[in-house]
Request: fold
Amino acid sequence: MRTSRRLSDLSWTDARDLALSGAMLAVPLGSTEQHGPHLPLSTDTDVAVALCNELADTRSDVVVAPAVTYGSSGAHAGFAGTLSISQEAIELLVTELGRSACRTFAHVLFVSAHGGNADPVGRAVRRLCAESWDARAFTPRWVGESHAGHAETALMLAIRPLSVRMHRAVTSSAEPVRAPGRGLRCSSVAAVSETGILGDPVGATGLHGSLLMDCLVTELTMEVAQWRGGRAA
Reply:
């Protein structure tokens, strides 16, 4: 991604000029929560940032904001390192952040790769739209295991391979608590999986992750094109 498309690298005049040219702001929303003994706590954030960066590489009208690295992760309480805030806090944060961002950028996209944020982010975006701000949300989804299994492990092998400790990956017989791509808010992962894994990460490869990322980027790009029209990088 071009350095000039990271909001944190811009001056205020750069941001003003890009906004006046019609640029949209893409805000990655992630979490800091356990993803088994083999994946980093930043997994959801890393996926969200990668999607925003890929979108910015595809379109010339995308500026990527610094990531929000905390989410509603109560289901992962009990695993060291998990830092969670409430759904109400997420909804308020996204609402206030959206109001502020829309004062510069006429169009704001929230890319949320943490399932536990889906409902509060959706409520926040609906509120922003009701207030006549132009905001959208995108949550990547895939068929398969819900947490730290094959899909997320493969994605991380494609995005940040050096952060993955495949020698620690183990198969979990635990049943997924909720459907893939949705939150695990109503149950305790620790109650069903001592490793924090729901699924089977063993056998995941970077190739699998690259193919899945390509599919997610295509879906994201198509949704943005339907919203904002086509604008190639």
Notes: Confidence is low (pLDDT under 50) at residues 178-186. Strands lie at 24-29, 62-64, 107-112, 134-138.
